[in-house]
Task: inverse folding
């Protein structure tokens, strides 16, 4: 589904990713964990083409998207839930969802919105409320719902648990599990390594711009190095 | 509380003295070739001292004073009422709009020529403000050089009529399109910029256009401007006493009425009115279309908008181009109304006033912007009696506005979009 081959990314002259290779297969949940500043977000942004990789290749469903403009990448069956939710706070819940299906027909969007409301009954209740007035958890649901509106085959989530209460985090992760059942491939980037790895089929550990470890989720959870570094011993 | 404010109040009083004392306290008197500095009259000295003391008192008790002002909102019995249901509100708004337009159509026949002239200017500002509202209010791109597009529209018409004798009606779309083209051209380099940086570049662009017009003497006539811009015609009927162009007839002869200078003024007013209404409706449509929503999305959160596959380039360029187009429209009408234009009409202050209209009206809100355009254009005229203090009054009104209603006269209300399943 998504394949990164020896990707290097620079911010100006500083190299942030030193040759990252990873693969997310169809129907999988893959987690990427790493400390602050390891380059997790950079890696995601590189997939989205902002900034573009300086060398190496990014393939989406076999198609080379390394040099495509961001707007084109985001319209080719992939969608992202950005870090910090980033809902349109002045727009209502419904309008936010509508923006997610910007390039779809009205009928598709109608179905899409109904589907999102099924997944998140909470959003239905808040249909006409401004997104900025909702709680963090609700906003995160909205961000996921919005990303679903474009009917993606693959969804990237950047730190969906950021700043949320444990109970809400649990709920969000349940939803992510549900996404897989709907046939959406999930690439999850998390600091909350414990939960991310429990859910994931496979996991990657990113450290200062390099992939350090790569294994199944459960193996990584059991790995003493990972436990020491990311799971608090 | 008072003790806490004391230092600040004292400081403010000193600042007032520092500013007022040299400016008001001395008079330069020319005696022959020499200039001597005289102290002002005792009255001025006392006035400056009193002013400083008032500033001191105000700052000392400002919490209480401003708190009291905030309480004024409670005096308004309408403040806390339930909002009307949407359908009722929309219907009421439509009726109100219809009545307003009808009044606006017939009103000029009953008032003086000067009022109609002023009303035409108001309508031009409404067009400008509605256009800028797209760029600033909806797309959130701070444009300080908007007057440049206005100038492009005006000069396009002036030059076309001057060199090729093109009439108002031909020049109107050309003026709009030329301005739109300039909007597009400006759009490209500023795409990467945001906020302050964007403001500075657009400010520079506005100045470039003005200075270009001022210095390109061979084409634009430089500071002398361009005169003799023809008035618009009504199906080949001219509004002058005598027909200037062959093949045209004159309005008063065709209808067999006595010649009156008012005809032309009213005609121009009606043109401006129709164009302003077209502008308002066109932009209203655009706001409800996907492109309008994409402007808002980009304003709300650029990263999120891009993550949904919106092209930043396309969205920003469309906002710039469409905003500029309506400024070009307004410019053409302005050139025709004045009959003479020079770079002096397109200084930065104009940009600032248009921006003030948008902010005062409430960013993104069309009705608010229209009301503010009326207020901002008419207020200085009404305050003309106060002569030199009129800009002061204008400024004070703006400051008070920002204190009481920072969200603008009529802040933008979200329209609820209802999706209907196709059956």
Result:
């Amino acid at each position: 589904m998504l394949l990164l081959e020896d990707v290097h990314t620079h911010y100006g002259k500083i190299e942030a990713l030193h040759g990252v290779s990873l693969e997310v297969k169809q129907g999988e949940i893959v987690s990427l964990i790493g400390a602050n500043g390891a380059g997790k977000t950079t890696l995601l942004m590189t997939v989205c083409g902002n900034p573009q990789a300086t060398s190496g290749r990014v393939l989406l469903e076999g198609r080379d998207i390394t040099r495509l403009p961001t707007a084109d990448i985001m319209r080719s069956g992939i969608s992202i839930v950005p870090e910090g939710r980033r809902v349109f706070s002045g727009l209502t819940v419904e309008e936010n969802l509508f923006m997610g299906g910007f390039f779809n027909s009205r009928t598709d969007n109608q179905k899409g919105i109904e589907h999102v409301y099924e997944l998140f009954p909470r959003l239905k209740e808040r249909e006409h409320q401004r997104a900025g007035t909702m709680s963090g958890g609700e906003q995160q649901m909205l961000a996921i719902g919005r990303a679903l509106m474009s009917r993606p085959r693959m969804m990237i989530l950047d730190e969906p648990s950021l700043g949320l209460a444990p109970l809400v985090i649990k709920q969000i992760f349940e939803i992510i599990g549900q996404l897989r059942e709907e046939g959406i491939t999930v690439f999850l980037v998390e600091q909350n390594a414990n939960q991310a790895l429990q859910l994931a089929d496979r996991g990657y550990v990113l450290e200062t711009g390099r992939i350090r470890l790569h294994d199944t989720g459960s193996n990584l959870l059991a790995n003493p190095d990972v436990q020491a570094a990311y799971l608090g011993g | 509380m008072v003790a806490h404010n004391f230092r600040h109040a004292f400081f403010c009083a000193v600042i007032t003295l520092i500013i007022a004392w040299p400016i008001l306290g001395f008079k330069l008197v020319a005696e022959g070739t020499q200039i001597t500095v005289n102290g002002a009259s005792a009255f001025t000295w006392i006035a400056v001292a009193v002013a400083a003391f008032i500033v001191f008192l105000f700052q000392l008790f400002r919490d209480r004073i401003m708190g009291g002002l905030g309480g004024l909102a409670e005096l308004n019995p309408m403040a806390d009422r339930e909002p009307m249901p949407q359908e009722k509100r929309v219907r009421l708004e439509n009726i109100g709009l219809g009545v307003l337009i009808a009044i606006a159509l017939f009103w000029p026949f009953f008032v003086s020529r000067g009022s109609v002239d002023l009303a035409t200017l108001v309508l031009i500002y409404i067009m400008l403000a509605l256009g800028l509202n797209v760029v600033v209010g909806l797309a959130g791109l701070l444009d300080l050089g908007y007057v440049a597009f206005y100038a492009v529209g005006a000069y396009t018409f002036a030059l076309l009529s001057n060199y090729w004798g093109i009439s108002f009606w031909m020049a109107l779309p050309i003026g709009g399109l030329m301005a739109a083209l300039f909007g597009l051209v400006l759009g490209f380099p500023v795409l990467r910029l945001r906020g302050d940086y964007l403001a500075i570049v657009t400010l520079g662009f506005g100045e470039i256009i003005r200075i270009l017009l001022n210095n390109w003497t061979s084409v634009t006539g430089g500071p002398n401007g361009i005169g003799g811009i023809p008035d618009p015609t009504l199906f080949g009927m001219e509004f002058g006493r005598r027909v200037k162009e062959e093949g045209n007839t004159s309005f008063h002869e065709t209808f067999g009425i006595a010649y009156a200078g008012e005809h032309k003024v009213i005609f121009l007013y009606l043109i401006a009115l129709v164009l302003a209404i077209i502008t308002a409706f066109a932009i209203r449509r655009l706001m409800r279309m996907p492109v309008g929503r994409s402007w808002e999305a980009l304003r709300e959160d650029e990263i999120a908008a891009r993550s949904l596959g919106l092209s930043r380039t396309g969205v920003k360029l469309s906002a710039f181009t469409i905003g500029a187009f309506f400024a070009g429209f307004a410019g053409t009408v302005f050139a025709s109304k004045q009959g003479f234009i020079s770079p002096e009409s397109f200084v930065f202050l104009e940009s600032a006033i248009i921006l003030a209209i948008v902010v005062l009206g409430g960013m993104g809100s069309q009705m608010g912007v229209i009301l503010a355009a009326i207020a901002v254009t008419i207020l200085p005229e009404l305050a003309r009696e106060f002569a030199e203090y009129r800009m002061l009054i204008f400024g004070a009104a703006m400051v008070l506005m920002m204190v009481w209603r920072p969200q603008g006269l009529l802040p933008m209300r979200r329209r609820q979009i209802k999706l209907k399943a196709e059956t």
Notes: Residues 123 and 142 of chain A are 7 Å apart (CA to CA). The beta strands of chain A are 2-11, 14-24, 29-34, 55-60, 63-64, 78-81, 154-158, 185-190, 202-207, 210-216.
